[in-house]
């Protein structure tokens, strides 16, 4: 087994990598056509966190779980925090949700009716209260707000209302809390979306302050977008707060990260590394945002964090000195070859050996399949309603 030279030079950085898991990936999800069930799917937030803890146990890569409100609402978030810690994980990003309430038909933080905006702002205030109980630092805001037909509403007025609403929410954060504003170029709105691109998110968060940053969901760009360029630019501007990792062939498919386009994931992680995103003091958080509509959810999440780890290892193996030299000499093919060499380096055997050296399963996917845990969950979790997006 050939260990890529310099692999031992990257393990310190790999050991620092942590990828936050989305609680909702463990529940049922689907499309407007069908949401399928799966035996053993969690029935509540406590069971979702137990499944996330299993992913961390198998990979050592996922020490925190993001929650979505109200999907993960519980009586006592302090008790939920203790539950998570007993299982060896932390509660992470709190995701607000203003995209499933009748009142938000024509918008939430952008709505023309001040009473509806108040309701939406109060929902974010409640999410901040929850952050105090869970010890979370990040409030993530994604808005479905937009219109379906030209003329339906004033694009300018909506931006100004959004800015005022975000300012009230930002004011409520305390000194160690941040908000990240996620953009998406369409869906569920089909003519315009109020936060459609990185430029709009950047403009809105820049008006708020240092603890307001952008969230880049890899499935939220128009086909053909050079996402790694946006990663570089937002990091250059000091405004990239977090990633929602997933992959897609067409729209916001929310498939397993790296499944649809592993080379794109490699290029994105190369820019993350080149711009200090894996440095010890990096402000960038890494989260998955996926839906396992037909595949098993725990192995789906295990596969996902392993895909990020593998592409991170390959990107860390880029021979920077050789690349800098080739770039300086305008050696176009030479420079590209340096990057492709790293991309085509099979790091899996070395990673397996490294995991074993840290007391982790060499092959987490196989170890999980052989553990019988999935069968145990299917037998144990009988009755009750399986969790989902509602
Ligand atoms: C919107 C989104 C957002 C979440 C939701 C689950 O498409 O990416 O991050 O709130 O998915
Ligand atoms: Mn997302």
From TrEMBL:
Stored InterPro entries: L-rhamnose_isomerase (IPR050337), Rhamnose_iso-rel (IPR013457), Xyl_isomerase-like_sf (IPR036237), Xyl_isomerase-like_TIM-brl (IPR013022)
Domain named Xylose isomerase-like TIM barrel: residues:
69-222
Please name the GO terms of the biological process aspect recorded for this protein, alphabetically: L-lyxose metabolic process; rhamnose catabolic process
Record keywords, A-Z = Isomerase, Manganese, Metal-binding
Pfam families named among the record's database cross-references: AP_endonuc_2 (PF01261)
Q: Kindly list any coiled-coil regions of this protein.
A: none
What Gene Ontology terms describe what this protein does at the molecular function level?
A: L-rhamnose isomerase activity; metal ion binding
Q: Which domain of life is it from?
A: Bacteria
Keyword hit for Isomerase: yes
Which NCBIfam families does this UniProt record tie to the protein?
Answer: RhaI_grampos
What the entry lists under PANTHER family is as follows: L-RHAMNOSE ISOMERASE
* Name used for this protein in its record: L-rhamnose isomerase / sugar isomerase
């Amino acid at each position: 087994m050939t260990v890529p030279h310099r692999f031992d030079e990257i393990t310190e950085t790999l050991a620092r990598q942590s990828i936050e898991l989305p609680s909702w990936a463990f529940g049922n999800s689907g499309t407007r056509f069908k949401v399928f069930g799966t035996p053993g799917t969690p029935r509540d937030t406590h069971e979702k966190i137990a499944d996330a803890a299993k992913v961390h146990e198998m990979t050592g890569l996922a020490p925190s779980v993001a929650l979505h409100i109200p999907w993960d609402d519980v009586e006592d978030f302090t008790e939920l925090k203790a539950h998570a810690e007993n299982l060896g994980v932390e509660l992470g990003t709190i995701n607000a949700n203003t995209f499933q309430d009748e009142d938000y038909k024509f918008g939430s933080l952008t709505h023309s009716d001040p009473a509806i905006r108040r309701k939406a702002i109060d929902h974010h205030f409640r999410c901040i209260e929850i952050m105090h109980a869970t010890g979370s630092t990040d409030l993530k805001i994604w808005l479905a707000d937009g219109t379906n037909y030209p003329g339906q509403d004033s694009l300018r007025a909506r931006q100004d209302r959004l800015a005022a609403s975000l300012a009230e929410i930002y004011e409520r954060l305390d000194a160690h809390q941040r908000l990240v504003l996620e953009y998406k170029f369409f869906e569920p709105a089909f003519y315009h979306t109020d936060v459609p691109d990185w430029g709009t998110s950047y403009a809105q968060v820049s008006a708020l302050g240092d603890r307001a940053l952008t969230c880049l969901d890899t499935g939220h760009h128009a086909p053909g977008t050079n996402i790694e360029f946006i990663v570089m630019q937002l990091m250059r501007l000091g405004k990239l707060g977090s990633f929602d990792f997933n992959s897609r062939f067409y729209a916001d498919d929310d498939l397993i990260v790296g499944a649809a386009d592993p080379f794109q994931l490699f290029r994105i992680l190369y820019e993350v590394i080149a711009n200090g995103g894996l440095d010890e003091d990096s402000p960038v958080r890494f989260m998955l945002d996926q839906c396992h509509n037909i595949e098993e959810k725990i192995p789906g999440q295990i596969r996902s964090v392993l895909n990020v780890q593998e592409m991170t290892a390959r990107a860390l193996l880029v021979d920077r000195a050789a690349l800098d030299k080739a770039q300086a000499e305008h050696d176009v093919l030479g420079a590209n070859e340096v990057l492709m060499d790293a991309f085509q380096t099979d790091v899996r055997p070395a990673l397996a050996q490294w995991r074993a050296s840290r007391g982790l399963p060499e092959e987490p996917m196989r170890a999980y399949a052989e553990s019988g845990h999935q069968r145990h969950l299917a037998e144990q979790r009988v009755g009750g309603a399986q969790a989902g997006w509602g």
